[in-house]
Specification:
This protein has nine helices and 18 strands. It is an alpha+beta fold and 334 residues long. It has three domains: 72 residues, RNA-binding S4 domain (Structural Genomics Hypothetical 15.5 Kd Protein In mrcA-pckA Intergenic Region, Chain A); 74 residues, Pseudouridine synthase; 163 residues, Pseudouridine synthase, CATH 3.30.2350. A hairpin with a 3-residue loop joins strand 7 and strand 8. It starts with a strand and ends with a helix. 27% of the residues are buried. It holds the Pfam family PseudoU_synth_2. It is an enzyme of class 5 (isomerase).
Length: 334
């Protein structure tokens, strides 16, 4: 661990941060400072806005002068400091960019943000790659193991606009997934409430979702694209609500979990499937549609599948051929 000091600073609030709570601004701006310390320096009045004491819920206004005091002896973990060489690959995954936002085709296995033992996520990586960017914030999130379209706002106006569109369910998302078994064509919609639950593994805690009438309602539309022998089904999926793990839990509820799902999946099937080199969650956010705030027209962002997903589709389509007969026999036993 390395100790460092944060010097006193005066920050003039620009339009990008208007309306943001001062505690949230400081949590983002002072990333190495513990959350408890940030609330303490606000509560004791050493953080000032326009030379006045403020509460943690104060919302910043354009032109405000925010004073950040000297903060001594902040511990910085060296292993969390990434080199540009380690993260520059992210630039090659950007699929669209304008003055409002950028869209990235997030690879499977990369978290959207750091934390919980992770060195970095997409948002931290982009901020390191673009140190002069005044504002980069996630518009929404994807699970670490899910690939596909991820939006990053480049100004607060766009962020608030899309957050409101998400709240009103005006943003359409579509996913592609491979699920275990043959999906019933009559099951076009799953509408079941989801409840958050904690599961403990020794000293670790996992947050899961389960179907429960005591939870929050969630609705997902499923459409069959292709069936593969008696082994798997390729689905086009459209979530109407945006609950955490919604698609994964609804697929499990339908008794056709997504292939490669370590939390909600068919463990025995996935172990066999990995023998053929297919070791990922086969869930991909391939399309996102919203009304662009400037043009006021529908805007589509699409992300292509990665090579492993394509290879898996090819494998499943050829299960019945002589070349894949042995694989078919293995999978049909599950």
């Amino acid at each position: 661990m390395k100790e460092s000091n944060i010097h006193a600073q005066f920050i003039k609030i620009s339009v990008n941060f208007v309306g943001q709570r001062v505690d949230n601004f400081l949590l983002c701006y002072l990333k190495t400072v513990p959350k408890s310390m940030i609330y303490r320096i606000i509560r004791t009045g050493v953080v000032r806005v326009n030379k006045k004491r403020i509460k943690f819920y104060y919302k910043l206004r354009i032109g405000d002068i925010l004073k950040i005091p000297i903060i001594k002896n902040i511990n910085i973990n060296k292993c969390n400091i990434q080199s540009l060489e380690e993260i520059k690959f992210l630039e090659s995954f950007i699929i669209y960019e304008d003055d409002c936002f950028l869209a990235i085709n997030k690879p499977a296995g990369i978290a959207v943000h750091g934390g919980s033992g992770l060195k970095f996520g997409v948002i931290e990586g982009l901020r390191m790659l673009r140190p002069r960017a005044q504002f980069l914030e996630l518009v929404h999130r994807l699970d670490r193991e899910t690939s596909g379209v991820l939006l990053v706002a480049k100004n607060r106006t766009f962020l608030l606009y899309l957050n409101e569109q998400l709240r009103l369910k005006n943003i359409e998302k579509k996913y592609l997934a491979l699920v275990h078994g043959v999906w019933d064509a009559s099951l076009g919609t799953v509408s079941k409430s989801l409840l958050k639950t904690n599961v403990f593994y020794t000293s670790n805690k996992k947050i899961m979702r389960v179907v429960s009438r005591n939870g929050k309602i969630a609705t997902t539309h499923f459409q069959i694209i292709e069936k593969y022998a008696n082994t798997a089904t390729y689905l086009d999926i459209r979530p109407i609500t945006g609950r955490t793990h919604q698609i994964r839990v609804h697929a499990q509820y339908a008794q056709h979990p997504i292939i490669g799902d370590k939390i909600y999946g068919n463990y025995e099937f996935d172990i066999k499937f990995k023998q053929f080199g297919f070791n990922r969650l086969f869930l991909h956010a391939y399309m996102l549609c919203f009304i662009h705030p400037y043009t006021k027209k529908f805007f589509f962002v699409q992300a292509s599948l990665d090579q492993l997903f394509y290879d898996c589709l090819f494998f499943l389509r050829n299960l019945a051929t002589t070349r894949y007969i042995s694989a078919l026999k293995v999978l049909e036993k599950l």
